[in-house]
Amino acid sequence: KSSSFTAYTQSGFGPKDQKDLADLFRTLSEKGVLLMLSNSGHEETKKLYSGFKIIEVPMLRMINSKADKRSAVIEYLVINY
């Protein structure tokens, strides 16, 4: 596992963006919206979504040009129902 979140866009998607997303998830959940979110399998993610159901899901990434270097990573499904 890497120690930082992935930059999904040119301007990045860092810790502040992750916190904003978690805050929105929590706000919507408090309004009764049923939610499921997939996010990176980092300890910080667990902290951001504490109190919600978190399921670890192994995901195979096909982004390495060398097949023998492709490996499974853990992602979290965060669910409020």
Write structural notes for this entry.
With 81 residues, the protein is α+β, with helices and mostly antiparallel strands. The chain starts with 14 loop residues before the first helix and ends with a strand. A 3-stranded antiparallel beta sheet has the order 1-3-2, with no helix packed on it. It is globular. It has 2 helices and 3 strands; from the N terminus they run αβαββ. Helices cover 27% and strands 26% of the residues.
Brief sketch in words of this structure:
With 81 residues, the protein is of the alpha+beta class. Helices cover 27% and strands 26% of the residues.
List descriptors:
81 residues; alpha+beta
Topology:
Layout: H1 15-30, E1 36-40, H2 43-48, E2 53-60, E3 72-79
Antiparallel strand pairs: 1-3, 2-3
* Poorly predicted regions: none
Give the total of beta strands. Answer: 3
* Biggest sheet record: 3 strands, antiparallel
Inertia-based shape = globular
Across the major sheet, the strand order is 1-3-2
Helix-residue proportion:
25-40%
Approximately what portion of the residues adopt beta-strand conformation? 25-35%
Q: What is the overall pLDDT average?
A: 86
The helix/strand series, from N terminus to C terminus, equals: HEHEE
Total number of helices: 2
Tell me the span between the first and last alpha carbons. 28 Å
Radius of gyration (Å):
14 Å
